[in-house]
Specification:
Layout (H helix, E strand, L loop, with lengths): L19 H17 L1 E5 L10 E5 L6 H12 L7 E3 L8 H7 L3 E3 L7 H12 L3 E4 L19 H9 L3 E7 L19 E6 L15 H23 L21 H4 L2
Parallel strand pairs: 1-7, 2-5, 2-6, 3-4
Antiparallel strand pairs: 6-7
């Protein structure tokens, strides 16, 4: 059945990674972010200073994208590009700001994501970075550990033949609880970010991958992210990736509200 959703425009890729329009958006957002929390990063030297790669990170709360975008733009001096849920692009003003800043709208249901994937490939082919939360939504793990990932992010990296680097953050849950409405900003509140070494996906870099191999590669990525979260939290996870389907949780939207 054809979808009734209108097509969303894709971002335009210019000759420069950091351009005037992006700088204008950053000039507005950076002071706001600095009032909300303080990003502290370590092991930044593990990332290439130029060239294409995919950053994969854990997803705890709705301010995570701001923290990672700040990390990419201010600390790495790169342009942050995210695969972002389509609903935000329908919000007046916000949608135009996201497109101007180079964010890529993706459809959750009812429509193929061919055009968004083309845009993501184009960014990587142009030597840009793409930041992805492979879980696809906020973690459903009761203790906020990373859960099982979706395969799209890894397919993108493998098809583009670019490196994949894990990044973990911790502290955003103190600013805005997971699906909570008690916003507690503070410029003194740290959001810690740590960068891992490039994930070795060499065994998966071949023309034909089975669904099982793509799933295996995705699990490897999520475990590498989890190891970094363990480092930040100073504790060990269970070692198993939480599966919301097995737990009977909604896999999209506010699963806490859906369970009531």
């Amino acid at each position: 059945m054809a979808s009734s959703k209108r097509e969303l425009p894709m971002p335009v890729i210019g000759p420069k990674e950091r351009h005037f329009k992006l700088s204008a958006v950053a000039a507005l957002l950076i002071p706001m972010v600095r009032l909300m929390f303080h990003v502290k990063a370590r092991n930044v030297d593990r990332l290439p200073k130029k060239g294409a790669y995919v950053l994969v990170s854990n997803h705890v709360t709705n301010v995570d994208a701001l923290a990672i975008a700040y990390f990419v733009y201010v600390i790495l001096k790169r342009a942050p590009h995210f695969l972002t849920k389509e609903g935000l692009f329908h919000v007046p003003v916000l949608g135009k700001i996201l497109l101007t800043a180079g964010q890529i709208p993706v459809y959750r249901t009812g429509k193929r994501n061919d055009e968004p994937l083309k845009a993501a490939h184009a960014y990587l082919n142009a030597g840009h970075t793409i930041a992805i939360f492979p879980e696809g939504t906020l973690t459903r793990n009761p203790d906020l550990w990373p859960m099982r990932g979706k395969t799209g992010a890894i397919r993108l990296a493998l098809e583009s033949n670019v490196p994949v680097y894990p990044v973990a953050h911790w502290g955003s849950e103190k600013i805005l609880p997971q699906y909570g409405n008690k916003f507690r900003p503070g410029f003194w509140k740290p959001v810690q970010v740590v960068v891992g070494n490039e994930i070795d996906l060499s065994k998966f870099r071949k023309p034909q991958l089975s669904p099982a191999e793509v799933y295996e590669a995705t699990e490897l990525v999520m475990h590498k992210i989890t190891e970094l979260v363990e480092e930040l939290r100073g504790e060990k996870s269970s070692g198993e990736l939480w599966d919301p389907v097995k737990a009977g949780q909604a896999v999209t939207g506010n699963f806490k509200k859906a369970s009531k």
